[in-house]
Design brief:
The structure is a homodimer.
Chain A lengths: L2 H12 L6 H11 L5 H13 L4 E3 L7 E3 L5 E5 L5 E4 L10 H9 L2 E12 L1 H5 L4
Parallel strand pairs in A: 3-5
Antiparallel strand pairs in A: 1-2, 3-4
Helix pairs in contact in A: 1-2, 1-3, 2-3
The first copy, chain A, binds a DNA duplex through helix 1 and helix 3.
DNA sequence: AATAAAATTAGAATAATTCTAAAAAAGTTT
DNA sequence: AAACTTTTTTAGAATTATTCTAATTTTATT
């Protein structure tokens, strides 16, 4: 664990957002001037590889990074807002991974559930 | 519907894979020499916008496109292979979208479930 | 047939991410 | 602690998936 890596790990874990590499970089520079974007990418990749953070595959050209505590994500198809959801946890009393493994016959190690919605804010606005 | 758009629509619907834009393009050129990559992108985007095909957000830098018939996806974390799965359908007797809407209190319009596994083939091989 | 609107083409532009090589830092062995 | 090895960081170039622009062609409409 270098200083840079633990800084990046800390930024992901203290954030309540779903930061992109660029957003992590901007926060990192504040706390360690001189750190470089490639270092942020290197460490994000290493942290993902080692299972300390996760990479989200959302409908956005940028990758987003998140804590490992399992939860789902809600994305508004109109404004693009991303926020947490807790749905899959509640669906299977033996745990989602166990149930999905049984149903599929595959050795499932993790999962990603993205719920596409029209968020409350966008519902309020008229369509154009 | 132009000739190009219906060609691209047909390619997606006849394929059992999860094609990238580049792969769609290669198949399109075979059947309509002279078609151009930008046209493929334009039409893929238009078809997604109009709900005739869907765009998958998988752990791959390329976007993948698929038919609209709802199902889940399995991705092998070791070799990257992508294949279909049918798990979410079986979890809620009132339908996954209805159940997720109730549980989350949001107006959910669709969802994407990606199951990360170690596929049978990779299980067979020793780790390096 | 003439006109208007939309789609295609060709190629340049954009931008997220990765790569390369050199320098610095961290870890290890004596 | 010095010497050595390995890993990481840095700086900037390279890559590449996707989008954009402007001109042309096709399609739809009057």
């Amino acid at each position: 664990m270098t200083r840079q890596k633990s800084l990046i790990y800390d930024i992901i874990n203290k954030s309540s957002d779903h930061l992109t590499a660029e957003e992590v970089y901007r926060q990192a520079v504040d706390r360690m001037p001189g750190i470089v974007l490639a270092t942020v990418y290197n460490n994000l990749n290493a942290l993902v590889r080692d299972g300390l953070i996760i990479k989200l595959n959302l409908p956005d050209k940028n990758a987003h990074y998140d804590k490992t505590i399992p939860h789902d994500h809600m994305v508004c198809d109109r404004c693009g807002k991303i926020f947490d959801a807790f749905v899959s946890d509640k669906l299977c009393k033996d745990g989602f991974i166990n149930t999905a493994s049984s149903l599929s016959g595959q050795d499932i190690v993790s999962y990603e559930l993205t719920l596409h919605c029209i968020c409350k804010e966008c519902q309020g606005k008229a369509l154009n």
